[in-house]
Sequence to fold (421 residues):
Amino acid sequence: MVTGVTPGGVTVTATSGAASGTAAVTVGPAVPVASVTVTPGSATLVIPGTVQLAVALRDANGKLLYPRPTTWTSDNTTVARVDANGLVTPVAVGSATVTATREGLSGATAITVDAPVLAFLSERDGSQGVYVTNADGSAVASLTSNTWVNELAWSPNGQKIAFVSYLNVYYEIYVTNADGSAQAILTNNAAYNLQPAWSPDGQKIAFLSDRDGNYEIYAMNADGSAQTRLTNNPADDYAPVWSPDGQKIAFVSLRDGNYEIYEMNADGSTQTNLTNNAGNDYVPAWSPDGQKIAFVSLRDGNYEIYVMNADGSAQTRLTNNAVDDYALAWSPDGQKIAFVSTRDGNGEIYVMNADGSAQTNLTSNAADDLAPAWSPDGLKIAFESIRDGNYYRIYVMNADGSAQTRLTNGAASDLLPRWRP
Ligand SMILES: [Ca+2]
Ligand SMILES: [Ca+2]
Ligand SMILES: [Ca+2]
Ligand SMILES: [Ca+2]
Fold:
């Protein structure tokens, strides 16, 4: 193998015994680079995802040249950095142009750094963790490397995500910035700590803990300080949800011998049984205007969605069939409720008016479609579906059921889509 070093001429000789042969080799000047092309020509990232850029150098005839050292630069390193090998790392939301230069010529890629729009849980790394993605499914990024995450909750300003992770023996509540930075444990004691629920002003987190021997609702400051028990009775209390004005917390309690939906002031005072019937009532969900609470009840022998006034009056059954209706989600304008129904033989995403009228199957698919979540603008619904094979993946559709699109494609289950507020 002959490698040219500098222009000039040499004779290369091969000898075997007494015989030899020669070849005259002329090394010419390097063929000048005539064009520099960077691929991909544009890329959208969410922090902390990265993209590897590639550069192609061609001569005046368009012939691909053997790679030569290239200088990489970013015109806005507060948005995106690039290393000596073309690996781009996003720094902050914004735009930047990344350029590769060789022999005075350059090629460029437009880099857009987006805030993540959806968070979800995925097992694709072998241990379920928090992931984020763009709304089009690009730039999937892992935020956590903790052991087994099983819940996540965006802060109301969309800058942080609280999550529950298994540490040694116990589940604990953690918080991370939405770019994966500044992860911190908020609870740290020899008990289970679950179900983080941000107050609407983002100042507090209500949660569940069995640190006192049975499950009680607690609240703490968003930095984990001032952990305070709000309920205090020997039965399980769980599933705290803040009223939209932050004045009250609805929750579920077993203190009366069956599951009932309770309400209390945010300081734990005036705990009131709202449902008060012999069947089990679960999963309270405040209407966006705070006037009503929808919930799931087993009082009729199977899961039905009910709604009541926030004081417990006027309990009204919205679904009425012999199979399960659950996983309800209010539309942001309060006009509709999405939910899961198995009335067609498998899990389907339905939507109905908030008074129960016009119940409509949006998914109509032989596989389970679960966990509907409205986008903040009310135009889209994200959900889980196993329609494409062995794993649940995150899908998104228009609120009328059209344009159902798979966003994720992990080699394991992707679950629990949650839009950034
Ligand atoms: Ca209790
Ligand atoms: Ca009940
Ligand atoms: Ca039912
Ligand atoms: Ca289905």
Notes: The chain has a mean pLDDT of 94.
